[in-house]
């Protein structure tokens, strides 16, 4: 099955604003895919729907072959989600935040601890494991959210503007991490308004503007005469 299949997806917010005008999007398994577009285009809304953070108005969404409406549990297990806003309890310690998440997925405590250690080390946060999350820098908080999203080893990782507000050095190290994760088989789908991020990381992308997919295809072909 494809990692993601969206068809005719519409979102009308409660205030009547139509943020998505019936978009279609397919991302094959193993891809490293960018949803690229300016602020307000509908990127967060699209991935928010896929991540069950936003309710859709109409249309169908399949994740890893599972239907978002009728197979929500399988969809959740297939996905790791890194939203744009920090949504952990900032007073908790780094390690506890990651281990707790593993608990939600029913992982035994010992495995939860091993996984947490693995990902916190890979994301250069292991020395901060006993630090309260609120003491971390923005870049560290972002990496904490990535570690937390990976603890159940999802097939597909979704990131909403993962490097927004992160300085260039940390951004590069996050890019290296994501590249390696993808190379080892995880499908990655991210939103970005940085052209450079999409060009550097993602072989395939879709360009979204005002709630419509304007183009989808290989990055090289789509961005060749920018
Ligand atoms: P849903 O029905 O998909 O859950 P809602 O329409 O209920 O979405 O809105 C979710 C939240 O986003 C609300 O608390 C709302 O106040 C807030 N919100 C409203 N307008 C905007 C906007 N233009 N951009 C971002 N958030 C907004
Ligand atoms: P992007 O992620 O591309 O910046 P969004 O998906 O956040 O775009 O927003 C798409 C459009 O929907 C924007 O015009 C935004 O103001 C509007 N919007 C987002 N959330 C809400 C909401 N809860 N209520 C009303 N409008 C919203």
| Largest sheet report | 6 strands, mixed
**Mean pLDDT, rounded to whole units?**
96
- Low-pLDDT segments, ≥5 res: none
Question: What ions, cofactors and ligands are bound?
Answer: adenosine-5'-diphosphate
- Tally of alpha and pi helices: 8
User: Given the helix and strand composition, which structural class is it?
Assistant: alpha/beta
Oligomer: single chain
N- to C-terminal distance? 33 Å
Cα-atom Rg, whole angstroms? 17 Å
The percent range for helix content is 25-40%
Strand order of the largest sheet: 6-7-8-3-9-10
Report what the structure shows.
This protein has 226 residues and is of the alpha/beta class. The protein has helices spanning 43-50, 72-78, 94-104, 109-122, 138-150, 168-183, 195-201, 219-222; strands at 4-12, 18-27, 32-36, 58-63, 66-67, 79-82, 156-160, 187-192, 204-209, 212-218. The strands form two sheets. A six-stranded mixed sheet has the order 6-7-8-3-9-10, with helices on both faces. Helix 3 (94-104) packs across helix 4 (109-122) and helix 3 (94-104) packs parallel to helix 5. Residues 13-14, 54-55 line the site of one adenosine-5'-diphosphate.
């Amino acid at each position: 099955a494809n990692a993601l299949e969206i068809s005719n997806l519409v979102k009308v917010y409660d205030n009547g604003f139509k943020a998505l005008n019936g978009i279609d999007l397919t991302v094959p398994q193993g891809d490293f895919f960018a949803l690229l577009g300016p602020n307000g285009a509908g990127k967060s809304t699209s991935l928010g729907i896929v991540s069950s953070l936003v309710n859709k108005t109409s249309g169908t969404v399949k994740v890893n072959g599972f239907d978002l409406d009728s197979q929500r549990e399988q969809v959740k297990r297939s996905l790791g989600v890194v939203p744009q806003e920090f949504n952990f309890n900032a007073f908790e310690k780094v390690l506890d935040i990651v281990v707790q998440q593993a608990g939600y997925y029913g992982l035994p405590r010992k495995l939860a601890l091993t996984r947490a250690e693995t990902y916190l080390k890979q994301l250069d946060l292991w020395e901060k494991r006993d630090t309260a999350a609120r003491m971390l820098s923005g870049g560290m908080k972002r990496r904490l959210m990535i570690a937390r999203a990976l603890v159940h080893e999802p097939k597909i990782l979704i990131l909403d503007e993962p490097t927004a507000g992160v300085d260039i050095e940390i951004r590069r190290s996050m890019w290296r991490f994501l590249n390696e994760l993808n190379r080892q088989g995880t499908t990655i789908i991210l939103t970005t308004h940085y052209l450079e991020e999409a060009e550097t990381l993602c072989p395939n992308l879709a360009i979204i503007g005002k709630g419509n997919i304007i183009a989808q295809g290989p990055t090289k072909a789509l961005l060749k005469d920018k």
